[in-house]
Write a structure and sequence with these properties.
heterotetramer, A: 256 residues, alpha/beta, Glutaconate Coenzyme A-transferase, 7 helices, globular, C: alpha/beta, 12 strands, 38% helix
Chain lengths: 256, 256, 316, 316
Amino acid sequence: MPGYTTAELVTVMASRELEDRKTAFVGAGLPLISAALAQKTHAPDLTIIFEGGAVAPLIHPTLAPYSTNEARATRFALMVSSPSDLFNLLHRGYIDYGFLGGAQIDKYGNINTSVIGDFEHPKVRLPGSGGANDISSLCTKTMIVTHHEKRRFIEKIDFLTSPGYLAGGDSRRAAGLIFGKVDRLVSHLCVMDFDEESGVMRVKKLHPGVTIEDVLENTGFAPLVAEKLETTSPPTERELKILRELDPEGMYVPHA
Amino acid sequence: MPGYTTAELVTVMASRELEDRKTAFVGAGLPLISAALAQKTHAPDLTIIFEGGAVAPLIHPTLAPYSTNEARATRFALMVSSPSDLFNLLHRGYIDYGFLGGAQIDKYGNINTSVIGDFEHPKVRLPGSGGANDISSLCTKTMIVTHHEKRRFIEKIDFLTSPGYLAGGDSRRAAGLIFGKVDRLVSHLCVMDFDEESGVMRVKKLHPGVTIEDVLENTGFAPLVAEKLETTSPPTERELKILRELDPEGMYVPHA
Amino acid sequence: MVLDFVEARKQIEAKDHSMRDKLMPPEEAAKLVRDGDHMAIGGIMYSRTPMAMIREVIRRGVKGLTASRLLFSFESDMLFVAGSVDKAVTSWISMAVTWGVSKIMRNYVEGGKVKLEEWSHAGINLRYKAGAMGVPFLPTLSMLGSDLMKYNGAKEMDCPFTGRKLCLVPALYPDVAVIHVQRADRYGNVQVDGMPFADADLARASGRVIVTAEEIVSTDRIRREGDKTVIPFFCVDAVVEAPFGSYPHECPGLYQADYEHFHRYADTVAKKGVDGVKEYLQEYVYGPASYYDYLQKFHIANLMKNVGLSRRLVSD
Amino acid sequence: MVLDFVEARKQIEAKDHSMRDKLMPPEEAAKLVRDGDHMAIGGIMYSRTPMAMIREVIRRGVKGLTASRLLFSFESDMLFVAGSVDKAVTSWISMAVTWGVSKIMRNYVEGGKVKLEEWSHAGINLRYKAGAMGVPFLPTLSMLGSDLMKYNGAKEMDCPFTGRKLCLVPALYPDVAVIHVQRADRYGNVQVDGMPFADADLARASGRVIVTAEEIVSTDRIRREGDKTVIPFFCVDAVVEAPFGSYPHECPGLYQADYEHFHRYADTVAKKGVDGVKEYLQEYVYGPASYYDYLQKFHIANLMKNVGLSRRLVSD
């Protein structure tokens, strides 16, 4: 019994991947909690930005936003602007980090959040891109944050909503995606990066108690494995305490 | 002695060409006075817009703007926006009238406000386009307002800053200028329109006491002449009174 | 098909650009939304959604609409189940992160009753922006290499200046836009507080524009803060006084969204699916005899609670 | 040549995006303008011209600048005669309608000492806008068929959606922008009252950004009205406290332009030409030992008179 949930683990591990003094496009839920946790630990000068238009809002301790596109998400923000302005700043290179989740993820970090099945006649219609395609196309470093399960990490996704390395190799660049990259994937099992040459996902760090076999069993394709596999240190008491204060009801990150 | 100056005559005649319930892009000086005169006579619902960003400002009776890009020109405006927003509204078709002057004008209503001589090595460098090119490219109806003199109305202008009918015929359209047109020219001698087919300037109305010979003598090219030449009625006492109240020092429109 | 930029400009040229009184009741304004129109909806998700006008459109039984919005939320369920909308154009459609994917959206899109055209969020913003600028497209580096471009009509091109590959996003010229704001005068000079979303672009891109406002203010008040005006009168065709006009969605600075209402709604839909929305429409759209009868259903205590929470957000 | 959009993005990526104290004296900020830079100048004509920073740039003897602005006014005379600027990129350059074409501009451009690149007003706005959007160009129907396109580098293309002919305006990515505003905090969060001009675009398009502000306010004050912020801190490299920083040009809401000063200046130039401007530079730029010594030259009575007239404009 590790004393934390898998969601808490993912949130802590994602927060640790964020460097200080950077800017981050953050979505509602886990990404926001993760970025806020980073601010309260090692990255006090991380700037949280919501694509809806808010730069560095001060979230109310009890009136947290349910979505990043409502007034609660703009509270005392330094700038309250339009999504198109924020996407322009993204296009210019001002946004260092972006967070993405995904219903289907392939080994090149391509993500599907649009449809299961055929696009025109979907078996399951998902919400769609939102800003996800823009983030993975244009953010300097995009981080995929997700629960790690075989049905999600698959060889061939049904629809490519948000580009990772496309078909690998030089194909992302050749498609015209010359800005930014999918830089990292944080799951409840491990941290992955991407081999720059092939664009293939690579297991880099294992979370406490996780073996490489655990990762491979829960991954529907064969990822690369770093020569020297690191092991992450478990979430600290302090991290967990702050995290639970940030989401006291466990609405976004269920508590242990 | 007609009791008014040529500038006053031009201002009154231009104001009469403005229909009520329309919008007009207006520059500093004579055009503003002309549009304001129209508002106070036959066109109370004419909306004055400055390309700098002000929609329908209320000009202070004694603190009139020297330029349309200063705070005085935005006083109590309904909207104070950016030039790029105003140019977008122009592109969309929201601006009915625009005013232009010009150092050189040819028979197709093309205007030069850039250089006398060669562009790269000009004999005289003029201020340049400003919004003039945008107005004549995109305003639904552009009106040229000018003093009428032979050295200004010439066969071949040195540089085409703002398009009229280009080389005449279908050439304006063929160049891609599918919006708007140069609709009218008001000088101190006459009012001209343009033959839709050939795009050539046509004398339409003579001002009081002016003969067609006067016009032709003062025009450096051969304009068309309307079959039925009209004569404008002289500026009324009321028009002149209002005009002089609008520009009490005769700064833009010298008094008699 | 969406209007060509040349046709779209001709429509604007032909309109009356004068500053005339456009204040009218919601029923009157809703007549500007016609069968088969492309209707652009202002706000995002559950913020400044023009709910008052959406209810009117449904009540009038308008059919065959294409509805577009940056991000759709609860209101799309209503428009789909009422049978008003055949096609949705957006970047995202869901009840909201908290309430999950809309079962209704799934039912209608998977069942082929509604076609869903998908853009990235930047992409749909650029479509409205191109419309507002009066041009046929805008370039971006979003969406390249994705499957979105295979279906949505964006085009690739090589940049004539740099040789780089670009995605060209076609302009969107909606037939009509419905927008809810904090205040406007009766002529249609519109001011917005807080997030502007793409509403200013919608108003400039669309052939007809309906503005509902929490408060109709004097033109003098507008003139005192002209730099807060985001839509000038000549872009607007109808102005409707609509206090709580976004409710149960939020209007920033005035009231927050009625989350408890959303919770109950989500529960109903989870249990009853489409029938739940039909009941909801009966109760909240077709049922209420008047604008205020609708608001009355939420109980004044709830309205005031959400006004209070909106104030607490910035007073604490 | 102007930066390619890819290079321009790489510069931004490489910058420190953190919210750090950037308040510095004008002399320090001026070091961000380097020999040979493309310097974009905020405001329009004699409104919100960053005069304090222009004086510093001249005083430092910066050479070989390309200077761009929507519309140039008196300040271009100073930059030309000081020898700071080799090339000007704009839509219009003149003292102003009231004071006529600049004799100095004519002297420098006709004499080949300054090259003048001309765009339409919409065109130069679109160049900055494209830069702010991070794209290589924007399309328009302006400038087609004109001689402007023959010299300024805009390109024609056939629209891939409509077949219509378009003018493509290349993006402008200035090396540095100098902007004067009503207020900013020390981190570079900037708010503007009244006409915004293209300053928000300049700040987003440029590699380095210097903001001079009439007032340095607390970040709390910025946060109380976040929807008035037009430039976020991460776009800004230097913040300078500069009361009357635009004088003798105007700062809307605070002081009007010193027209009498302009009249005297125009008279001097009419009489003495370039030598008049040299004397002017000696008196107003090189001479004053400090920032306030410069303002002192205008006499406090004049400063207060123009503050008063600015207030009267809206109080009457």
